[in-house]
Amino acid sequence: MYIGRFVVVGRDNSGTLYVGYRVSGRSQPDRRIVMKDEIASVVPNKGVEYDNPFVTYPCFRRAGDCLVVSNGSQTWPIGEKIISGLPVKDSLSLSLLALEYERDQYHTPRIAAVADYSRDEAWLGIITDSKLEVRKVPVEAGEARLLAVYELTEVTSVDIASENPEGIAQELMELPYEHPICSIASMIKAGYVEYGVR
Description:
Distance between the termini: 21 Å
Low-confidence stretches: none
Largest sheet: 7 strands, antiparallel
Mean pLDDT: 94
C-alpha cells in the first residue's frame, strides 16, 4: 500500500515519548534528511535539483519542551507558536489552517505530530481539502500512532519495538508501505535531543 509521507508519535517501552517522520514517494526519490542545530530538513541529494517547492522543507525541530515533525513548511510556524507560549492544540490548528493543504494536483494533506514533554502528551494534526483535525492521542508504553497523507489519513496504530531513535528511524523505513526514501526519529532524554536518520 502506498500512503505517501507519514508522521509517527509513540513511546518506547520505558514510556519515553518520541516522534518520527518518513518521506515516501513515487517521484523525486533522490532526497535525504540532514540535521543542523536541532532542525532537520528534507533536501535533494548532492547534484540533484528539483523544481518543486514541496521537495525541500524543514521536517523536524525542537520547540522548547516539544518535538515537532511534519511533511512541510508548517514545521516552522508550529514550533514558533509553541515557543511563544501557545498550547500545542492551538499551535497545530492555527499553523495548519493558515497554510492549508498543499496546492499540488493531488491536494496533498499537511500532517504534523508533536511530543510535548512538559505535559507528557502526544498530538497529531492533519488538514485536507475538506477537514482540519487536531487530536491529543493516547499512547501507552510500547505503542505508536501513525498519520499519513494518503489512505491512512485517520490515526492508525503501528508496531515499533526499538528503544532508540536510530532503531526507530530504521523501523520506519521497514514498515510495509511502498516507496520509502528517508526517515528521522527523535526523543528528548535528560534534556538533550537524540535523533536517528536513515
